[in-house]
């Protein structure tokens, strides 16, 4: 199965994204055909944007990934889908490693932080540690998005070469 068919089968339809909460603010821009086409550049770019936005330490990853996908005219459904990499199960380890990395790079003493998402926790715990968290999130997001971009480009290329070779073997 090609990567294109896999994405077509598993990505939400255009109408579903139009109806999703918060996406109505982008409705004027959603008619751009490149946002919906599945080709190597658009797919790799959308996935990379989604992964990068998944590391944003705020609960607006989906909206940010949609906005950035529209700006760069890459596949919108993939950007939104890959931004869901950060979810209630993956957020604590992602932010833990981001904080550790940021603390190490800034040369700060690591504080023992109990991760729990509430307004009280944000006001009392997150505010003093935001610098290492943001730095670590930015670095991890950049690395993971670059790996995602090049991995999808590579898989797409391998798949295209295999299809081309199989067509020419038949003749």
Secondary structure blueprint with pairings:
Blueprint (H helix, E strand, L loop, with lengths): L2 H8 L3 H6 L20 H15 L6 H12 L3 H8 L7 H16 L12 H8 L3 H41 L1
Helix pairs in contact: 3-4, 3-5, 3-8, 4-5, 6-8
Give your account of this protein's structure.
- The chain has 171 residues and is an all-alpha fold.
- The protein has 8 helices and no strands.
- Helix 3 runs antiparallel to helix 4, helix 3 packs parallel to helix 5 and helix 4 runs antiparallel to helix 5.
- The chain starts with a helix and ends with a helix.
Q: How much helical structure, as a percent, in the residues?
A: 55-70%
- Give the count of helical stretches: 8
- Alpha-beta classification: mainly alpha
User: Tally of extended strands?
Assistant: 0
The biggest beta sheet is recorded as: none
| Total count of domains | 1
Order of helices and strands: HHHHHHHH
User: Which runs of at least 5 residues are low in confidence (pLDDT < 50)?
Assistant: none
Taken from the alpha-carbon principal axes, the silhouette is: globular
Please report which band the strand proportion falls in: under 5%, 5-15%, 15-25%, 25-35%, 35-45% or over 45%: under 5%
Distance between the termini: 22 Å
Radius of gyration: 19 Å
The overall pLDDT, averaged over residues, is 84
């Amino acid at each position: 199965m090609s990567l294109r068919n896999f994405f077509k089968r598993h990505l939400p339809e255009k109408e579903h994204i139009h109806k999703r909460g918060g996406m109505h603010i982008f409705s004027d821009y959603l008619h751009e055909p490149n946002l919906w086409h599945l080709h190597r550049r658009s797919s790799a770019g959308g996935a990379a944007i989604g992964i990068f936005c998944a590391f944003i330490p705020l609960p607006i990853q989906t909206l940010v990934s949609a906005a950035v996908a529209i700006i760069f005219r890459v596949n919108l459904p993939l950007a939104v889908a890959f931004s869901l990499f950060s979810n209630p199960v993956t957020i604590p380890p992602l932010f833990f490693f981001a904080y550790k990395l940021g603390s190490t790079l800034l040369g700060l003493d690591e504080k023992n932080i109990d991760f729990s998402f509430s307004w009280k926790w944000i006001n009392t715990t997150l505010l003093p540690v935001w610098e290492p968290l943001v730095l670590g999130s930015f670095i991890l997001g950049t690395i993971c998005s670059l790996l995602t971009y090049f991995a999808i480009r590579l898989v797409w290329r391998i798949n295209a070469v295999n299809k081309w070779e199989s067509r020419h073997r038949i003749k």
